[in-house]
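Hi there, hope your week has been kind to you so far. For a while now I've been wondering how a particular protein folds. I'm sending you its amino acid sequence along with the C-alpha cells. Could you read through the record and tell me how the C-alpha cells relate to the sequence? Take your time with it, there's no hurry, and the full record follows here.
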Amino acid sequence: MDLPSLLALAAVLGWASGFRLYAVVFITGMAGALGWMPLPDGLKLLQHPVMLAASGLMLFVEFFADKIPGVDSLWDIVHSVIRIPAGAALAAGVFGADSGTLAVAAALMGGTLAATSQAAKTTTRAAINTSPEPLSNLFASFFEDGLVVGAVWLASTSPLLFGLLLVVVVVLMWVVTWLLIKFLKAAFRRVSDLFSGFQKVA
C-alpha cells in the first residue's frame, strides 16, 4: 500500500471508531482474512480468529443496544472512554512500530477523528432521544451502520476522494455538535424550569 492509501486507512479507522468501534475492528479484520484488503503488519492481529470472534460478538451486542432509545446514549457514554484511544491505536497500527514518527502522527489524527465522530454521535443521539417516537432513532442507527461500511470501502478503493469527503464531513460534524449542544442546554434548562415551577406550586 502506498502512503495515501495508508493515511486513508488510518483516518477511516480513527473516524469510524467514534461511531462503531467493534464494527470497524470486525470489518477490517474480516476483509484482511478474506483477502479483500491487504492489512499492514500492525493490523494483522485483527484478522486472527479469536479477535474476529470477540469483535463479532461485541458487534452483535452493539448492533441491538444502539437501536434502543436511552440505551444507545448510555452505551455511547460508557464507550466514550474506549472509542477514542482505540481509534488512536488502530490508526497508529497502520504504520506499526517501525515508522515511529508516522505512527505517532497517525495516533494523534486517529484519536482526534474518533473524538470528533464520538461527540457528534453522542450529541445527535441525545437530541433524537428527546423525541418520544423510536423511528428516528432506528433510522439514525442504521444510517451509522451503513456509513461505517461505506467509509471503510471508500477509503480502501478511493483514498484521495475519501480524504476530501472526510474534511467536509468533519467540519460539518463540528458545526452540528456545537448547534446540538446549544439545543440540549436549552432543553435541559426548560425541563429544569418546569420542575422548579411544579415544586413552587406544591
About this structure: The longest helix spans residues 159-201. The mean pLDDT is 85.
